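To: structure subgroup
Subject: Chain for Friday's discussion

All,

I'm putting the inputs and outputs inline so they're searchable in the archive.
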Amino acid sequence: MTTVKIRGGGAAYAGPVLPLPPFEWLAPRSLDEAVRALAAAPDDTMLLGGGTDVLPNLKHGLHTPRRLIGLGKIDELGRIEVGADVRLGAGVTIDRLAREPRVRAWYPALAAAAESIASPQLRRMGTLGGNLCLDTRCGFYNQTAFWRGALGHCLKAEGTVCHVVPAGRRCVAALSADTPAPLIAYQAELELRSVRGTRTLPLADFYAGDGVHHHQRAPDEIVVAVRLPAPAPGLRSSYLKLRTRQAIDFPLLSVAAVVSAVSVRVVVGALGPRPRQVRLADGVAAARPLTPASIDAIASAAAAQCHPLANLGDEPWRAAMVAPTVRRALHALVASVTEA
């Protein structure tokens, strides 16, 4: 395993470019090496896949780990395996996920979500595991240390006050990752590894409602893979993303819809610390084929259950766009059946 000490710019650095802080860099070549290295100091260590989110956050002083473990040299994490289910390694890049023929054919909502992320350069660096573990975002948090200190720190970074919900005691920063919503709609499971062994859990159970501690990964665990059920005949899915610009931006609202012969699953993301699975009445969920009336009922249910806060701004617009975005996602599925 390669180990390098990065000196960084230091806390007192006052130059025009934000520097990285000092840290020790470890580059294991196997998963066993990685979990042992992480177990040695889990509370002082951060994991790094492509680094497209972690490194900017380090420059902003949002995290101050003593060590970084780079996972890019671990071949096992970059594999896609097809058997009784489909196993996507956490190190698979976002670009490969978007272009992989089997993903595009079997899980088009996931491919569409991956294709919508950031820019081509960032997609070639970013990884599936990194996107699933993306730190939550907020307009009061994702700022430089100088900006945060001038306003007054928040629940998520060194403070005791939430600037979004002033009386709140729980952080409402939003999970602005694209892949969780479609993966939850596909009923994916997550595989995690530590020196204690391997465990799996439904991806829907991985996320929590607290923007600070927004996922269930233990400090000594590494996300190693996502497992997807084999695609059922006739399964249809779509993904739509609302953002200020049609390139690079994080989602302000995302909708994944999956329709099978027996169920409709709609997952809304980017409004809070975890994606929300829309609860549907039994009659609506089982109605086939989808009709304008059933689509309107599903869209109304989503709007009633999904309430964005001012964590990323424009909350009245985002709230108003929930129902029409769900309608568009479901009408796209109806159109795909017609075209087929």
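Points worth raising on Friday:
The domain at 2-73 is CATH 3.30.43.10 (Uridine Diphospho-n-acetylenolpyruvylglucosamine Reductase; domain 2).
The chain has a mean pLDDT of 93.

D.
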